[in-house]
Amino acid sequence: MKCVYLRVLSLFMLMFSVVSYAAIDTYEFNDEQTRERFHQLNGELRCPKCQNQSLGDSNSPISTDLRAQVYRLLNEGKSDQQIKDYLVERYGEYILYRPELAGHTLMLWLAPFAFLVLGLAVVLVLVIRRRNTVQSSGLDITEQQDLEKLLADSGQGSAEPTSEVESNKRD
Amino acid sequence: MKRVYLFVPLILFIALVVLFAKGLKLDPNDMPSALIDQSVPEFSLPSLASPDRLLTRADVIGEVSLVNVWGTWCPSCMHEHPYLMELSDQVPIIGINYKDVRDDALDWLDKLGNPYVLNVFDEMGTLGIDLGVFGAPETYVIDRKGYVRYKHVGVVSERVWLERLKPLVDELRGEK
C-alpha cells in the first residue's frame, strides 16, 4: 500500500518538475556571434520597469517581452544600432545604459573627467602648499638655534632606540 | 581669509543634502513617453468583444480621448476601474487589453462594468511595445489627429484627472 502512495507521489512530483521549466526562456542562435551580440545588447539595454536592472538581468514581464523582441530583430538581420534605435523610439533614451554622445548628454560624459581634473588640481594645490610650509618653519633665528640645540640633546638620548629600529629592519 | 575656507565642506554638504532631498521626491516611474507629440502607431489587432473584427489606428482616433492600457492580471487596474466608470461619460476611453486572457477580460467587464468605447485585444503586447508600455495601468491622452499628447503611468485617480488630464483634454478640445 505504501508503495502505491510513493508511486503516486513521485508521479505528481514529476509532473510539477516539468512545469518549472516554463519560467526559463531559451533562445537558439544560428551562430556564436549572434549569441554574443544578444547578450551584449541585453546587458546594455535597461529594463524600463525596474530602473536598476538590465534587460538580461530582469525577470519582469516587460523585460521578457523586450528580450524576445531583441531576439526577433537580431534574427531579422538588424544591426545593434538599429535595434537600439528601435527601442529608443519607443521607450526613450532611458533604455540605453550607455547613452549616445550628443549635446544634451555631453555633461554626463564629460563630468567624470571634469571631476578628475578638479580633484587633481585640489591635490596639486595641497601638495604645493604643504611643501612651502615645510620649507619655512616660521621660527626666527634664535628660536631655530634653540630648536637645533634641543634636537641635538635629545638625539643623544634616543640614539639607542633608533639603532634598535634599524636592526629590526635588517631582520 | 583662511577662515572662509573652513566653510567649504559645510557648503558642499548642504548642497548635497539639497540635491539628495530633491532626488527623494522624484518619482522614478515618471518618465516622459518617447511618443509625446508623435502619432499613435499603426496596428491591426482584434477587438476584445468580437475576435473577428480587426481594429486599426483609424478606429481609435478622431476624438480627444484617453487610451487606457489595462489587464485583469493587474491589481492597480482593479483599483482604477471604478473611477474610469465615472470618467466614461466625460471623455471617451479606449481600452488596450494588454497581455490578457480574452475570457477573463470579458468577465471583468461584465461584472465590473465597461467604461470603454472599444477595446483592442493586445494579447502578445505588440502594440504595447510600439507604444512604449512597460506596465499597466498606463493612460495616454490623444488628440483629434491621433497624436499622443500625454502619458500617465499608474492609476488615474480623481486627483490625476483634475490636475493633469482634464486641463489638457479641455485644451485639446479647444484646438481645431
Tell how many strands the DSSP assignment of chain B holds. 7
The CATH H-level homologous superfamily of chain B: Glutaredoxin
Mean pLDDT figure of chain A: 81
Could you tell me the number of beta strands of chain A?
0
Give the proportion of residues in helices of chain B. 40-55%
Q: Architecture of chain B, CATH level 2?
A: 3-Layer(aba) Sandwich
Report on the structure:
The complex is a heterodimer of chains A (171) and B (176). Chain A has 171 residues and is mostly helical. Chain A is 68% helix and 0% strand. The longest helix of chain A is centred in the last third of the chain and has 30 residues, at 106-135. Chain A starts with a helix and ends with a helix. By secondary structure, chain B is of the alpha/beta class. Chain B has a single domain, classed as Glutaredoxin. Chain B is 42% helix and 19% strand. In chain B, strand 6 (138-142) and strand 7 form a beta hairpin. The longest helix of chain B has 18 residues, at 8-25. Chain B starts with a helix and ends with a helix. The chains are: A mainly alpha (171), B alpha/beta (176). The interface between A and B is medium-sized, with 15 and 16 residues.
Q: How are the SSEs placed, and which strands pair?
A:
The complex is a heterodimer of chains A (171) and B (176).
Chain A: H1 2-19, H2 32-44, H3 61-75, H4 80-91, H5 106-135, H6 141-157, H7 159-170
Chain B: H1 2-6, H2 8-25, E1 44-46, E2 54-56, H3 57-60, E3 65-70, H4 75-87, E4 93-98, H5 102-112, E5 118-122, H6 126-131, E6 138-142, E7 148-153, H7 158-174
Parallel strand pairs in B: 3-4, 4-5
Antiparallel strand pairs in B: 1-2, 3-6, 6-7
